[in-house]
Specification:
Radius of gyration: 28 Å
Shape: globular
Largest sheet: 5 strands, parallel
Strand order of the largest sheet: 6-3-2-12-13
Number of strands: 15
C-alpha cells in the first residue's frame, strides 16, 4: 500500500475551530485540559488514577460482562474486560450512533484510531494497560440519521415507524433490506461474508442494540475492542449524584452557556455546536424519549401527562435511574464518570461540542479527557492513482472544489499561458505615466484616467476569462476524465468517508481492508491519510 497525507487545514473540509485547535491556538487553550501528545498522557494517567475509584471499576466490569452475556467473546476482549478491574488500566473511547451496517466509512476510522492509540500508549507506558472502548449511542432517537447505508450509490433504507430510544427498536422490516442488499452482491467469499454478517446481526437478534453489539464485536473482536452500552441500570446508578445536580441546580446550563459566550467572543468566528437547556436530560421508557422540564418547582416530561414535585422526582431517580437519559451536553460527563478514560476520539463536530464542556466538568470535579480528532482516510486503487498521474493531477488537487480543480488542471495542461498578470502590470505602468500628466491638469481629468484604467483592467479580466473558457472547451475530454475520477473518490462532492459504506471495499479486499487500516492509521499524526490499495 502507498500512502500520502495532507494537513487537515489544507483539505478545506474542517472548520476553523478544529484547525485552530490542531494548531494549539492560544485562544482555545482554556477550552481543553491537555493537548493529545504522547508525553501529555503521563499527567492525564496520574490525574485520572487519583479520581477514579475501585468501586466504580467493580460496577463497570460487572455491567460490561452482563452486556456480553449472549455474545461470543474473543480472548482479547475477555482479557481487556478483566483488565478494567485493575487500577492501572485506562481506556481510550470513541462513540457513535447505531447506524445500519455501521453507516459511513468513518465509523471504522474512529474505532481503528482508538485501537491504535491504545497500542501506542502501551508501548510508551508499559506499566499501564489501555483498553479501546466503543460507546454505543443506544439512547439516541434520531432514527432518520441511522436507518440507511449507501451501497454503490444507492441508499439502502430501513423503513418503519420509530419512537423512543433507537437501541430498543425491534428489527422488523430489515429482512427486506437484506434481500435488496444481497441481490446486489456476487457469490465471492467476501460477498458471502457480508451477507452472513448482515443476516446474523439484523435477522437473528431482538433489537438494534444487540444487533450492533454483535456486528461490531465480529468486526473488531480480534483487536480486543470492548463495547459499552450506557443505557444500563447499574451504570446509571453511578451517575445519580450528577443527575440530581442537573435537576436541582442546573449547573451544566450555566457553565456551558458561559463557555459558549466566551467562544463567541473570540476572533475566530467559531460556530457554536450545541446550546444547553435548563435541564439536559430526557426521560425514557419503552416508547418515550422526551425532555424533562421544570416550571416553578414542578418537573414534567414534555408531551406527556407525567409530572413530579422535586422530592418525587429525586425519589423516582433513586428507584429507576435507567429512565433518566443524558442529552448531548450531559452524555460526555456520564461517560467520563463511569469509565477510567484518558482520551475521547471523535470527528470535527464532536470535538467542537466537547470543547464547550470543560467548565462543566470542572464544576462537577470530573477529569476532562484529552480530545483527539479521529483519523480521516481517502481510499483509492492503484488504477485510480495511475489515472491521477496520467491526468497531471496531484492528490492535493483532489480536495479542491470541482470548478477550482477544472480551472487548475486547464492552466496546467494548456499549451497557452492563461494568465494576464504581466499585461495588467504593463497597463498599470502606462497609467502611472498618465496620472503624472493628469496631476498637471484638473481633477476631472484624473477621474477620467481612473475610469479608463478600471475599464481596461476589466477588459483584460474578461479576455482572460474567455480564454480560460475556450481552453476548457478544447480540453473537455481531459477535464471530463478528471471530473469522473474526482466524483468516484468524492461522492456527491463530499468526503468519501462520509458517504460510502465499508461493504464496497470489503467486497473487494475482505479482512485485508481492516488489517491495512490498522497498519497505516496513526492517530496522533494530525493529517488526512490517502491510502492506495492494489486491485
Amino acid at each position: 500500500m502507498l500512502t500520502d497525507s495532507i494537513p487537515f487545514r489544507e483539505t478545506n473540509y474542517f472548520s476553523s475551530l478544529i484547525c485552530d485547535y490542531l494548531d494549539e491556538n492560544n485562544d482555545l487553550k482554556s477550552f481543553y485540559n491537555r493537548f493529545p501528545k504522547l508525553e501529555n498522557f503521563k499527567a492525564q494517567i496520574e490525574e485520572k488514577r487519583g479520581s477514579f475509584s475501585s468501586e466504580t471499576r467493580v460496577v463497570l466490569v460487572k455491567s460490561v460482562k452482563n452486556q456480553y452475556a449472549s455474545v461470543a467473546v474473543s480472548e482479547a476482549t475477555k482479557t481487556n474486560i478483566e483488565l478494567l478491574s485493575n487500577n492501572e488500566t485506562f481506556t481510550v473511547t470513541t462513540g457513535h450512533q447505531l447506524n445500519l451496517f455501521t453507516g459511513p466509512l468513518y465509523f471504522f476510522y474512529k474505532i481503528i484510531s482508538t485501537i491504535n492509540l491504545c497500542t501506542q500508549l502501551k508501548a510508551e507506558y508499559p506499566k499501564q494497560n489501555f483498553v479501546p472502548i466503543y460507546w454505543m449511542a443506544t439512547e439516541d432517537h434520531d432514527f432518520e440519521e441511522i436507518n440507511y447505508f449507501n451501497f454503490r450509490g444507492q441508499k439502502l433504507q430501513w423503513n418503519r415507524k420509530a419512537s423512543g430510544a433507537v437501541g430498543e427498536l425491534q428489527l422488523d422490516g430489515l429482512d427486506s433490506v437484506f434481500e435488496v442488499f444481497a441481490n446486489q452482491l456476487n457469490t465471492s467469499t467476501n460477498a458471502e461474508t457480508l451477507k452472513q454478517l448482515f443476516k446474523s446481526a439484523y435477522l437473528e437478534h431482538q433489537d438494534l442494540t444487540d444487533a450492533m453489539r454483535y456486528l461490531v464485536n465480529e468486526l473488531f473482536k480480534d483487536q480486543g475492542l470492548v463495547i459499552v452500552d450506557g443505557n444500563d441500570t447499574e451504570l446509571k446508578r453511578l451517575f445519580i449524584p450528577y443527575v440530581e445536580d442537573e435537576l436541582v441546580n442546573q449547573t451544566s446550563f450555566d457553565k456551558v452557556s458561559q463557555a459558549n459566550s466566551h467562544l463567541n467572543g473570540l476572533d475566530g468566528n467559531y460556530k457554536i455546536q450545541v446550546n444547553p437547556r435548563e435541564i439536559n436530560l430526557f426521560y425514557i421508557t419503552k416508547d418515550i424519549r422526551e425532555r424533562i422540564i421544570e416550571t416553578e418547582g414542578v418537573y414534567q416530561v414534555l408531551n406527556t401527562a407525567i409530572s413530579w414535585s422535586k422530592s418525587e422526582i429525586l425519589k423516582h431517580l433513586s428507584e429507576v435511574p435507567e429512565r433518566f437519559s443524558p442529552n448531548v451536553i450531559m452524555r460526555p460527563l456520564f461517560q467520563e464518570v463511569i469509565l477510567p478514560n484518558l482520551c475521547y476520539i471523535g470527528g470535527g463536530g464532536e470535538l467542537a461540542y466537547w470543547l464547550q464542556l470543560k467548565s462543566n466538568f470542572e464544576a462537577q470535579k470530573v477529569v476532562f479527557p484529552l480530545l483527539l480528532l479521529r483519523n480521516s482516510v481517502l481510499i483509492m486503487t492503484d488504477k485510480q492513482k495511475d489515472k491521477l498521474q496520467k491526468l497531471n493531477v496531484s492528490v492535493d488537487d483532489l480536495f479542491l472544489k470541482q470548478n477550482e480543480l477544472r480551472t487548475k488542471v486547464t492552466k496546467q495542461v494548456s499549451g497557452i499561458t492563461i494568465d494576464f498578470s504581466s499585461q495588467k502590470a504593463h497597463l498599470e505602468q502606462q497609467f502611472k505615466e498618465l496620472y503624472v500628466l493628469a496631476e498637471q491638469t484638473d481633477e476631472s481629468f484624473i477621474g477620467a484616467v481612473k475610469a479608463q484604467e478600471a475599464k481596461q483592467i476589466k477588459g483584460l479580466d474578461n479576455l482572460e476569462s474567455r480564454l480560460l473558457k475556450a481552453q476548457k472547451r478544447k480540453l473537455s475530454d481531459h477535464l471530463e476524465r478528471v471530473t469522473v475520477l474526482q466524483d468516484d473518490l468524492f461522492p456527491r462532492q463530499s468526503l468519501q468517508e462520509r458517504n460510502m459504506n465499508f461493504s464496497e471495499f470489503y467486497l473487494e479486499y475482505g479482512d485485508v481492508l481492516i488489517l491495512k487500516l490498522i497498519e497505516n492509521l496513526e492517530p496522533l499524526k494530525s493529517e488526512f491519510l490517502v491510502l492506495t490499495v492494489q486491485n
